[in-house]
Design a protein that fits this description.
The structure is a single chain. This protein has 10 helices and 8 strands. With 315 residues, the chain is an alpha/beta fold. The chain has one domain: Glycosidases (TIM Barrel, Alpha-Beta Barrel). The strands form 2 sheets. Strands 3-2-1-8-7 form a 5-stranded parallel beta sheet. It has a 3-stranded parallel beta sheet with strand order 4-5-6, covered by helices on one side. The longest helix is centred in the last third of the chain and has 19 residues.
């Protein structure tokens, strides 16, 4: 483990979405101002924009791209999850090879939070059953194979609350022992592929005592805060230092969702307050589909990484 850590590059990461059925399982009129949050029966992904981003990632020094797969793949184990235009596995393999040729490590992501699993279709309604566990096992194994045995595997697991599913037609919330049991199952499925499990850390905001008792330190943490006040007493900001004190490796996560300087401020704050040996890098998120309508947001996010990276490396 020590030898592997010594070879790991400091991560300058970027999350991109292949599939985007993750926010709502229906066409919700309540989301008319943000229709991209609603699930669709077709792919929402521009190859042209992907090609543009690939070059910009390489130029910016982005060395890790986390790919949220969702319904974006026609899985051999579960082709029923595909939508119109879902990629064949071999198409993905070709693009992963292109990323590696540009010096970028691709990382698979499948979000198994019930607040973000519209991509699972009917299986999202049978959580914590043998059918569900079989499907999760199959999908994680297939994704790991498509990525040729990835070093990391992101499981999501954020925002599993009723409030975060207020637009869903069918609400499922695991809590207490059920949530931790299923997290443990998913972590084991990833570890059996040889990858390191990676999750969002917001569960620590709600139940910190239980979190620190039950969350394995082998699981890479991505706490996140998208605001601009790092001194205002936010529980999300405070979690960065508490996770560090408890010995967790972290990849703090920022976004241009609301504030253009959030990534830079996240880098500054966490560089100052976290143990360098446990700070594994940073992840930029946009939370928009990979489509031309959101081109500016996606490209600006890359530019923000480049600027923060240059400042970080010139310290």
């Amino acid at each position: 483990m020590v030898e592997r850590e010594q070879r790991e590059p400091f991560m300058w990461g970027y999350l991109i979405h292949l599939g985007y059925n993750m926010w709502c399982d229906r066409e919700a009129p309540e989301l008319a101002d943000r229709p991209y949050l609603c699930s669709k029966s077709h792919m929402r992904f521009s190859r042209g924009l992907w090609n543009t981003l690939l070059v910009k990632w390489a130029d910016a020094g982005v060395n890790t791209v986390v790919i949220d797969l969702g319904e974006g793949i026609k899985y051999q184990t579960h082709p029923e999850l595909a939508v119109r235009g879902s990629w064949q596995g071999e198409w993905l393999r070709e693009e992963l090879a292109r990323l590696r040729d540009h010096g970028i490590e691709p990382v698979p992501k499948m979000n198994f939070s019930t607040a973000h699993d519209a991509w699972l279709g009917r299986y999202g309604r049978c959580v914590a059953t043998e059918t569900y566990y079989t499907v999760c096992h199959n999908l994680i194994s297939e994704a790991a194979d498509l990525f040729d045995g990835p070093r990391l595997f992101h499981l999501g697991m954020d925002e599993e609350t009723a409030e975060d599913q207020k637009w869903y037609s069918h609400v499922v919330v695991r809590q207490f022992e059920s949530w931790w049991h299923d997290l443990g199952f998913l972590v084991h499925q990833v570890e059996r592929t040889g990858a390191r499990p990676w999750v969002w850390s917001d569960q620590v905001w709600r139940t910190p005592q239980v979190f620190y008792q039950k969350m394995p330190r082998s699981v890479l943490q991505s706490n996140w805060y998208y605001g601009d006040d790092f001194d205002g007493g936010s529980r999300a900001v405070a979690a960065y230092t508490e996770l560090d004190k408890r010995g967790y490796d972290q990849v703090p996560t920022a976004s241009n969702w609301r504030h253009a300087d959030n990534f830079e401020k996240t880098v500054e704050h966490c560089t100052e307050h976290l143990n360098a040996n446990r700070l594994k890098g940073f992840l930029q998120t946009v939370w928009k589909p990979t489509l031309g309508d959101y081109r500016d947001d996606l490209i600006n996010a890359v530019e923000q990484v480049a600027q923060a990276r240059q400042r970080y490396e010139s310290r």
